[in-house]
Every structure is written in C-alpha cells, then in structure tokens.
C-alpha cells in the first residue's frame, strides 16, 4: 500500500522564504522547503489497483494553468498541536482544477473529500507544548504576509513515506496544466516528475 496525495509545487525560493519566517522555538518543526506544496487532495493508503485507477483518471484530466499568490498566514489547531500555514489568494482556475480533480477521482472510485478545500501551504507543525501566545503573536505579525506570485504549471501525484523524522515525498507522476486556450483542446498528458 502506498500513502498518496496530489499537490501543486511551490518554487524553492518562495518555500525557503516562507519556512524562514517560522519561529525558531522548541516544539516547532518547520517543513523542509522542498516539501512545501499546495495539497489538492490527500488520498491516504492506496493499493496498486487504486493507484492505477487514480493515474488513469489523472491522465484524462484537462485544466488550465494559473497564478498562485500568498496572502496572509494562520494556524490550524488540533489535539496533536497546531499547524502554521500561509494562505493563498482566491483563484477561480484553482477552484476549477479542484472541482475537475474531484470529479476525476470519483470516476476512479475515490469518494469526495468531506472537508472543505482551504488552499494553504503548511509551513510548520507545533507540539501542544508550544506557548499559545507565541503562535498567536506569529499569526498576528504575518496577517499581511505576501510573496511574489508564481505560475502553477503542473500537478503531481506524490507518495508520502513516514519515518521517525517525519515524511518524505516522492513524485510518482506529473501532469501539465495548460495555457487556457490549450486546456480545452488537449488531454492531460503525463510528464516525467
């Protein structure tokens, strides 16, 4: 079984800058810059048959490329601690890709996500022992966070492997996002990761 997810990459320079603003404090684990990405869909543990159906569904997907822009920061709270994140500006083309991806995955037998899609980049994971005031102050200081926008030109199917140091992500396949005029006339063609 492989633990799979679909994501859009973040340029290394943007990711490094964002991870660089994470507070350096005990109990806060910044994401490796190479792993900062926009998760479109976490698929979880998939067997070989499911992985093949997912890949076939992605092969048939057509979508336009789009610009992504960071706007603000925040945190998700949970019983295991908090997640610090950078938000992404609303983007109709991203919403269209997410909808098309949901439909394609349903055709492959993957149920739709129950949670609402919230476009963000995970920057760090924080243990419950991290002082709440530190995290509140960080979010307040980065409410107006902005970095140069970038063009999303492909989406990637990743396998995530967990070990005691965290997760490592390996690209299994990548599919291009086309210029808007081409997206209507060409099928999604896998490209090498």
List descriptors.
26% helix, Cyclic Phosphodiesterase, Chain: A, disordered C terminus, 193 residues, 4-stranded antiparallel sheet
Overview of this protein structure:
This protein has one domain (2-183): Alpha-Beta Complex (Cyclic Phosphodiesterase, Chain: A), CATH 3.90.1140.10. Helices cover 26% and strands 37% of the residues. It has helices spanning 12-20, 48-59, 92-107, 132-141, 180-183, and strands at 2-9, 28-30, 37-46, 66-68, 70-78, 81-88, 120-126, 150-152, 154-163, 166-176. The strands form three sheets. The chain has a four-stranded antiparallel β-sheet, with helices on one face. The chain has a four-stranded antiparallel β-sheet with strand order 2-7-6-5. A two-stranded antiparallel sheet has the order 4-8. Helix 2 (48-59) packs across helix 3 (92-107). The chain is globular and about 45 Å long. Hydrolyzes RNA 2',3'-cyclic phosphodiester to an RNA 2'-phosphomonoester. It catalyses: a 3'-end 2',3'-cyclophospho-ribonucleotide-RNA + H2O = a 3'-end 2'-phospho-ribonucleotide-RNA + H(+).
């Amino acid at each position: 079984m492989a633990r799979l997810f679909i994501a859009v990459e973040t340029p290394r320079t943007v990711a490094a800058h964002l991870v660089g603003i994470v507070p350096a404090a005990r109990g806060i684990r910044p994401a490796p810059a190479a792993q900062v990405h926009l998760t479109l869909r976490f698929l979880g543990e998939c067997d070989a048959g499911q992985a093949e159906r997912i890949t076939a569904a992605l092969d048939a997907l057509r979508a336009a490329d789009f610009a992504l822009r960071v706007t603000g920061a925040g945190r998700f709270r949970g019983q295991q601690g908090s997640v610090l994140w950078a938000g992404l500006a609303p983007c109709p083309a991203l919403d269209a890709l997410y909808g098309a991806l949901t439909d394609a995955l349903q055709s492959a037998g993957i149920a739709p996500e129950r949670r609402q899609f919230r476009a963000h980049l995970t920057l760090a994971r924080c243990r419950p022992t991290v002082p709440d005031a530190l995290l509140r102050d960080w979010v307040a200081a980065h409410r107006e966070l902005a970095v140069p926008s970038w063009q999303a030109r492909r989406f990637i199917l990743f396998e995530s492997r967990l070990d005691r140091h965290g997760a490592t992500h390996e690209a299994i396949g990548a599919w291009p996002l086309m210029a808007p005029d081409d997206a209507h006339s060409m099928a999604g063609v896998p490209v090498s990761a």
